[in-house]
Amino acid sequence: MVDKILVVEDEITLQETLAYNLIQQGYEVETAGDGKAAIEAARLFQPNLILLDIMLPILDGIEVCRILRQEMNVPILMLTARDDEIDRVIGLEIGADDYITKPFSMRELMARVKANLRRTRLDREDAQAPVIQTPKEILHFDNLVLDLVRREVLLDDQPLTLKPKEFDLLLYLARHCGQALSRDTILEQVWGWEYSGNSRTVDVHVSWLREKIERDPAHPIRIITVRGAGYRFEG
Ligand code: CA
Fold it and tell me: Which domain holds residue 229?
């Protein structure tokens, strides 16, 4: 898609030079010579970028920028002639995206135009990008609820006090609900490779967890011992 650029400049020679160079670069160009014409052209043409001179007849560039900002989300590159104009552009926070001081080289101007177009294109693509599905942050198992963000476990709506590793272990088991997991796997995944303990650590933590989440810890129905294998979380 060809980017459309609106050139707003009352000095005809400069307006024509800008238009010529932009067309040479492959842009579609529309021009306006005063502030009122600029607003009308912007509404009709729906440009992808506006080059906007500040000193303009009828309505100056600052007013034009202010008005267009409320209507459309288009990058506006101000053309300023003097330092005190730059101060106005920056100080007034009129919503211009960039400015360039006259006199400027065409090469410099083209670079700015390209940079501003690229930035808005990236913003647009960001806005269109599919929302990444966040992993489930709350796991429900009947009356047992794991809130991953708050690192909180509720049983019958009452928060349980779990040690950090108990929480990690329960979370790991819960995420692999229904799967038989060996003690070594659990040890690796929950405690990490560097952990020097043995699989007895897993048994101890499982028994602590059972005390907290099982109705009858002696006859567990949530964390089941799988003979010769390890443990399985049943939910
Ligand atoms: Ca001017």
Answer: 135-233
Going from the Cα of 165 to the center of ligand 1, the distance in angstroms, rounded, reads: 69
User: Ligand 1 centre and the CA of 81: distance in Å?
Assistant: 8
pTM: 0.54
CA-closest candidate to residue 151, choices 135, 140, 175, 167: 167
pLDDT digits over 31-68, tens only? 999 999 999 999 999 999 999 999 999 999 989 999 99
| Greater model confidence, 13 or 128 | 13
Number of domains in the chain: 2
Q: What is the DSSP letter of 191?
A: I
Ligand 1 centroid to 190 CA: how many Å? Answer: 68
Cβ-Cβ contacts under 8 Å for 235 (sequence gap 6 or more): 141, 142, 144, 174, 177, 178, 222
- Give residue 9 CA to ligand 1 midpoint distance, Å: 6
Q: Are 210 and 219 in contact (CB under 8 A)?
A: no
74-113: per-residue pLDDT in tens?
999 999 887 777 766 665 567 787 888 888 899 999 999 9
CATH number at residue 47: 3.40.50.2300
- Spacing, Cα 106 to ligand 1 middle (Å): 17
- CB neighbours of 26 closer than 8 A, spacing ≥ 6? 2
Distance 98 CA to ligand 1 centre (A): 17
